[in-house]
């Protein structure tokens, strides 16, 4: 399918969006899910970040290069910023409504950050990630709702993880290309990640070894163990169980060694 052109962000009908009404079915589903969970596990809400959504809109679908979308950044920077600001407003509203519906934690996915170098990322992604964090916290407070933790995941933006950690989120998600030791040196808040999802294809013994190493490198303070990206449909659920069980076992072993804070990152 064909994507949008540079005039799209200027059309009035594309600017004023009633998110609560247009996506009411989503919020109803969140509320129902929260009720059915009965407090057994937290309910996580999420949204794609502005640059990632912009890329899909311009490309008209997936792309190996995002060349059409990146062309905008070089040839239509003003239109790019207009679209990114529009998306930021809509995404922020969407996330606020998710909290109102029952989401207890939010994650913002900048899945296409890997297509941007440090300079383009700082111009066309980073500011909008920060705007979302600020707008959501303000919007949640204005609605009289309790503040919720927020995670930001910018896949492939290893070059900017320190800057990302100062955008107002509680946790920085890391993909599998980021060295845990480097992440701990450059990120001053909690981190999440970052086992290569394809490691779940490995034999059980190898998976246990890789997962153990990951947890030991990150430590257990200010850390959420996770994969470094999404899980794939053909993966064996048993491998997921091995991953989770290993995370729990290794974490417990670390904590049993005495004062956990003497072994963990500050």
Question: What features would you describe in this structure?
Answer:
With 266 residues, this protein is an alpha/beta fold. It has helices spanning 19-22, 24-37, 50-59, 67-75, 77-101, 118-124, 126-142, 161-164, 180-186, 204-218, 237-256, and strands at 44-48, 105-110, 150-154, 171-173, 190-195, 223-227. Strands 1-2-3-4-5-6 form a six-stranded parallel sheet. β4, α9 (180-186) and β5 form a beta-alpha-beta unit. The longest helix has 25 residues, at 77-101. It is globular and about 60 Å long.
Number of distinct helices? 11
Overall SS class: alpha/beta
Which consecutive residue ranges, at least 5 long each, have pLDDT under 50? 261-266
What is the succession of H and E elements? HHEHHHEHHEHEHEHEH
Strand content: 5-15%
Helix content: 40-55%
Summary of the model, kept short:
By secondary structure, the protein is an alpha/beta fold. It has helices at residues 19-22, 24-37, 50-59, 67-75, 77-101, 118-124, 126-142, 161-164, 180-186, 204-218, 237-256; strands at 44-48, 105-110, 150-154, 171-173, 190-195, 223-227. The longest helix has 25 residues, at 77-101.
Task: Based on the model shown, name its key terms.
globular, 266 residues, 50% helix, disordered C terminus, alpha/beta
Topology, element by element:
Blueprint lengths: L18 H4 L1 H14 L6 E5 L1 H10 L7 H9 L1 H25 L3 E6 L7 H7 L1 H17 L7 E5 L6 H4 L6 E3 L6 H7 L3 E6 L8 H15 L4 E5 L9 H20 L10
Parallel strand pairs: 1-2, 2-3, 3-4, 4-5, 5-6
Helix pairs in contact: 2-5, 3-4, 3-5, 4-5, 5-7, 10-11
